[in-house]
Amino acid sequence: MAPKNMLKSEAGHTRTAYQGIRRMLFHNEIVPGQKIAYRDLAERLGMSQTPVIQALKWLEFQGLVRHERHRGYYTEPISVQEVEEIYDFRLQIELALLPRTIARMDKAGLKTLKTALDAHLKASREIYLHDRLVKDMEFHLTLAFLSGNQVQHQALRNLFDLLYLKYGGNLLFSTSMDKADTAHKELFSRISEGDLDGAQSILSHHIQRVKRHVLNGLERLMEEKDNSGF
User: How far apart (Å, rounded) are the C-alpha atoms in residues 230 and 217?
Assistant: First the structure.
């Protein structure tokens, strides 16, 4: 039996590899439809192949990559239908949680939500695309967390993983940050006033607008690839 400290070390390396691969997916260093060369990944991460393979197994379990017997690991190609389903499910979860969030809201909760809103508004609008995406996600996850429903909060986090990791941040960012800023500020205002109907209306329009922009962008991208012959 392996010593405990050795097992802890192996788990730590796997965790490091897992986080490193997640970053590559998010920054489009690994793109949809690509074969994943785990030997190259191990080189880039500065570690052996074993923790990289273990990390890829974790990602496979999450549905972010797939394994083909005797061929290796791959990312899935773009699926407009899947992205549409993810946004529809996200909308269902977030709208369902709003009544609980507003009912439970207190001064501490409002302060927590305001902190998430301010972080989103302060994120760079010119260069750091990924920071803006992360802060946008954190605002929505904070809103869900304040409902107290841990299962749906985790389900929402998993949906963001599918969007931002499986498809990559750059492919999805096609909506105006000004519109997102306005929607988030209006949503916070309605929640602070206890206006459930107004908050649900703003949230619904916000997510559906983002969904339309993203789907249009993905469809254009796929058309360009078809026309280019790649």
Answer: 18
